[in-house]
Amino acid sequence: xxxxLKQMVTESRNKNTTNIDMLNTIDMVKVINNEDKxxxxxxxxxxxNIAKAIDKISYAFxxxxxxxxxxxxxxxxxxxxxxxxxPPTFGTPAELVMGFIAGGKEAILKAVENAEDNKExxxxxxxxxxxxxxxxxxxxxxxxxxxxxxxxxxxxxxxxGITVGVSCNPDSxxxxxxxxPISPVVGGEVVTxxxxxxxxxxxxxxxxxLTTGSMIKIGKVYGNLMVDVEATNEKLVERQKEIVMExxxxxxxxxxxxxxxxxxxxxxxxxxxxxxxxxxEAKILLLEKKGFIRDALKMIK
Length: 301
Fold this sequence. Notes:
Largest sheet: 5 strands, parallel
Radius of gyration: 22 Å
Number of helices: 13
Distance between the termini: 66 Å
């Protein structure tokens, strides 16, 4: 079947930018900026489905499941980017959130010819990690039809896994195939068909919410502080101290001492100070309450 690009909103020609090559630089970037302003509003229309996806993902995390992103090109790279940020930000194991791109690691840096047109490649990737019914699969495809992504979605459905689709075309094949469709329709791109632009920005906003919302719901955030952040460099060591100080209203010396006693674990250090506990007591209580600081504090007060 011949692919009709003209039927896709993401491939449509944007009337607002037809003369962009004739503009001076400041007017050019104003046009781009005006188009970008539409992205958040398009995402806003999908908040109910984004919330549904977050509830499914957080449930999976609490019950031995994982979040797996699949995509090709820009979409695949965005999934890998979001997944790779979770361990340092939320202290999660690398296998909890993973991203796969058509063509494998080589495709992260450059296009791999025809990889996105092969459904079996995605199935192989999912088999490699033993994808199962406890997991959530998020297919990312601006077009909503990428064969690599569709192959993975079909496989996940056969296994009973929760499926989510992030696309930027209304009523796409992907949206119709998944349990939870998320379809921010951002319209034609500034440069026709370059879905790394508005579509890519929309996808990034959605993925930000999926992981951030899910991590909040499993206790990885206290207030608005990332209390499970890993201190992998000097800046993050200082950030940990600031987090403990903000959460407990203690001074730097107290924060430093508590972090030392807890081997650099913000959450335990915070509970130590707020609950007036020893490090071992705080650690045990947090384990009992599955990492939720507020629930642990209720047991003390």
